[in-house]
Amino acid sequence: MYSVKEAFYTLQGEGARAGRASVFCRFTGCNLWSGREADRASSPCRFCDTDFVGTDGQHGGRFRDATSLADHLAALWPTNTVGKAAPYVVFTGGEPLLQLDASLIEAMHARDFEVAVETNGTIEIPAGIDWLCVSPKGTSRMVVTRGDELKLVYPQRDAPPERFAHLDFQYFYLQPMDLTPLHGEGDTMAEVVAYCLRTPQWQLSLQTHKIVGID
Ligand SMILES: C[S@@+](CC[C@H](N)C(=O)[O-])C[C@H]1O[C@@H](n2cnc3c(N)ncnc32)[C@H](O)[C@@H]1O
Ligand SMILES: Nc1nc2[nH]cc(C(=O)O)c2c(=O)[nH]1
Ligand code: SF4
Ligand SMILES: [Mg+2]
User: Fold this and answer.
1) Could you tell me the domains of the chain?
2) Of these residues, 51, 101, 109, 209, which one is catalytic?
3) Is there a cis peptide before residue 96, judged by omega within 30 degrees of 0?
4) Rounded distance, CA 47 to CA 180, Å?
């Protein structure tokens, strides 16, 4: 059984694949925060910008097996696209690796999709992922130390970029912390720009979907 908060067709907003048409599957639940505001301040991850509680979002629900969820997600890829790009699905959440398994990945491959994952890096990865983005959180212990992109939200007191710069990733991104969920103030954009100018291993990742005003 898979629990999905919401699923939708949009452009990937962040990181190396920003701008690519994608079906997003947002799984319910996370291991680093309950999703309740009352628990935010005492959780390992405190700045989350996402509602991943329940199954009540657009195209959300509970799916009995990989076939039924894969059919549901594949149906969100439009039938009238033109050109060469492969269909692309991004599994996120919440924490997708609490639920994503090799059989669902296989079912998406069987429907001609490339499979991307956005994870906090604390849970072992299943086989078959085509694009892996790891985004470390505070003091949480990372078990995934290689992948395609490491995308660190900045600044985090307990997770400075220097802790991750030696890991086995092709791209290293800093993404300015959106302080809106925290009702906070501060110019995290300027801090990221300054860091990337000092340390060119790290590149700027913007949450372009928020700028554009899409999901
Ligand atoms: C909501 S998380 C879901 C996937 C997974 N749990 C994770 O943390 O990577 C998706 C992406 O949004 C980023 N993110 C969450 N809250 C953010 C915020 N306030 N500002 C900037 N990025 C944020 C995360 O670091 C992650 O890269
Ligand atoms: N457009 C868009 N791009 C995204 N990239 C990562 C997202 C996420 O919440 O995991 C996200 C999202 O929520 N929307
Ligand atoms: S780990 Fe990801 S989904 Fe979980 S609370 Fe943090 S940003 Fe949100
Ligand atoms: Mg998001």
Assistant:
1) 2-212 (3.20.20.70)
2) 209
3) no
4) 9
Nearest Cα residue to atom 13 of ligand 2: 215
Residue 61, by phi and psi: left (phi above 0), alpha (psi -120 to 50) or beta? Answer: left
Angle, helices 102-110 vs 66-74, to 10°: value is 40
Q: Which ligand is nearest to the CA of 175?
A: 1
pLDDT for 190: 98
d(CA 211, CA 59): 24
Q: What angle do CA 140, 108, 97 make, to 5 degrees?
A: 15
Residue of minimum CA distance from atom 11 in ligand 1:
118
Instruction: Give the DSSP H or E segment for 210.
Output: helix 208-212
Q: How many CB atoms lie within 10 A of CB 177?
A: 21
pTM over 0.90? The answer is yes
Q: What is the number of the ligand closest to the CA of 90?
A: 2
* pLDDT tens sequence across 87-102: 999 999 999 999 999 9
Catalytic residue among 39, 49, 112, 158: 49
The whole-angstrom distance between residue 186's C-alpha and the CA centroid of its chain comes to 24
70 close to 162: Cβ distance less than 8 angstroms: no
Give the model's confidence band at 198: pLDDT under 50 very low, under 70 low, under 90 confident, else very high.
very high
Is 114 marked active-site? Answer: no
d(CA 165, CA 12): 24
- pLDDT, one tens digit per residue, over 139-174 is 999 999 999 999 999 999 999 999 999 999 999 999
